[in-house]
Amino acid sequence: MPNLTAVKWIVTTAFCANHYADGPAFAAIPVDQALVDQVRGMQANVAASGLNETRIEFERTVWSDSIHFPLENDQLVVRREDFWVAAFPRRGGANMETAIIDVGVLERLTDEDGPILFNGFSPDDLSDSLHSELAGLLGEISEAPTSSGQEPTKEAPAVTRRLVIEAYCTNEFGEGPGFAVVTIDRAFVDLVKKHQAIVVANDGLYFSSSCGIVWENKPDYRIRSESLSVGSSEFFFTGQPKHVDYEVVTRPVEIEELEGYLASDLEFYVVGDAPDDLLDRALPLLRALYLEDLK
Q1: Domain housing 19
Q2: CA distances from 29 to 70, 141, 230, 247, 258 (A)
Q3: What is the pTM of this model?
């Protein structure tokens, strides 16, 4: 097999060792020639030692929904014929693991192959909620370097602002979070404006895509299928609490306000009918998420 000069991504399903716990549904493993050689060496060690498996630290995996399920201490686990990646929740709990991957997959990869290989599943077979989570992961790895050994360009720290947005249930008798928090930076503003241009050019109503947003008490409501919807002049977020037939929706935010958020010296902005009360309610979550910003 010729050496790989381009990074390929193996996108695979993931599961929690505790079947009653939530976690990311997918993971993306970057494959370059260094990883291929590493796995070969670990295979040889397993064969020579008689052990069932061998492990090393491996901090290159990208997990889906990492905002809500931050993981750490990733390990590459190799046996004689297969391998996978394991990781541990930052806040404690049962470990996460990717699906098992046949080592032969690595041996067959060439530079002529596409950039992404789906391991053991087809995106076309996923539910709407899982498809949305997968789309977010694919969007994240699409920004990664494509040449083996290439390092990301170091830039000045980005300006970020936090937006606290009032939220409500589409069912007046339903229960759900009262607000959501989203990080606003240059990349987010550019994305919203790009979607806005698509809507305007096609006389559409909204352009929806997967997103990263933190809902109040998300674990209690087990919200999935999160989406950013952009219209001709405003945007909002939606989510689907598990086991119910209604959605949670944020209040709309004016797109023209985004540049002002970035240019201002304020770290936090509130969108809602009673901004002072909403900010008081959101402070515990803001402190937990962005402690350095709330000195």
Answers
A1: 8-141
A2: 16, 10, 31, 32, 34
A3: 0.51
